[in-house]
Input
Amino acid sequence: MNILEEIRDAVVEGNAAKVKELSGKAIEEGFSAAQILDEGLIGGMNIIGPRFKNNEIFIPEVLKSARAMHAGMDMIKPQIVSSNIQEKGIVLIGTVAGDLHDIGKNMVIMMLEGSGFKVIDLGINVPTEKFIEAIEEHKPQILGLSALLTTTMKQMKNTVETLLTLESRPKIIIGGAPITQKFCDEIGADAYAADAASAAEIANMLIGSGSQAAGA
Amino acid sequence: MIVVGELLNASRKAVGAAIEASDGGYILQVAQDQLEAGADYIDVNAGTFIDKEREYVEWMVRLIQDNTGAVCSLDSPDPEVLNQALKVHKGTAMINSISLEKERYDAILPIIAGTDLKVIALCMSDEGMPVTKEDRLIIADKLINGLCRNNVKLENIFIDPLVQPIATDQSYGAEFLNAIEGIMSGYPGVHTICGLSNISHGLPNRKLLNMSFAIMAIAKGLDGLIVNPVDKQMMASLIASETLAGRDEYCEKYLDAYRAGRFEF
Output
């Protein structure tokens, strides 16, 4: 087993100390940050995602692996900055206005980062204007909207309706406990993600389908 | 233990479908089952129907009360839905719920001020979700004082300190449990209440976690639960826990439940 596979397996195990140590060693051995990231760290999270979706592993185990992945990212950060690695894409994400819940959203962020996206998190209780400003500033390919309450679904609808009027806009993925595919179709969002692992899969699909960055 | 039967919630598939199809028979059966299992209040929620919530809640309240006489917990943050439901509700309803989020607080307070309605008060503010016991106690204090100043009796207030998933942070269980203790010892006469399903979100075998958590919370003083009363094992655990926590003189409730066959499952 080469060191990148060892890193991958340590991410799957959720062993942060080991991932950190191996990532440092891999740099010394001459592996590029891109290789460590893609084959090791993201490679590990790519194994975690489907297992989580299939109920083979559970949220605390995903969190443990995500922590391990971040430990590795911290080690290779200086190399990433200097080598100017291209991110897969930018995802802007937030919980809609009136809704203060963020546990699910944070899970989605982890899975997206684990899948190689750069994620910009606007946090909770985000008004539509703030999404629009951030779209202009960051030009994301994808926007993720979360709502946990039946009451804030209405707000999600308003936000999506406004965003749909933008001349150039990212693809919109929505999710949260009360959200359904039916609701997604009704309000005209691009996709519904039922869980954090699906959100990452759908984001990958949408990027693959040649979506244009806002303003591009 | 004050039990709010949680099953008539539109976000449950079968219930949502029955509401949409005006299937009163199904709704009534679920209400009846919960009452027989020991529910004190029947929670009524049509929150997934954005435009028809008011109409559906009114229909459910009428249906349930005309046929069973049960008291309802009116589950909506929308003051118009609550006011409409209160117009047709007979007896003293429970309002589910107010919180310290300004918009919600200002909208719900006029409905309950000076009345004898029961109210669930959720420990949530515009600053976000509480994390620690202290966060919860600060919000609970403001809610209790605010409600009392507006002529809501302490014994009509049910503080919900907000259950969060243990899967995402190992401290969430203990912070909640200690908050229950702080509220119950700090404001004698007030009630505490919570739902259970959040605690086990993201973990397997959720019933075990939900039940264990209920037992631990009862030991800390929790005296209300929003729960599925048709789950006999859960209900039996609640009864046994209250007895063990010293809130069942001469083990009367425990023995009544035993004789009524509530421990056979």
Chain A touches chain B through 22 residues (CB under 8 Å). DSSP finds nine helices and five strands in chain A.
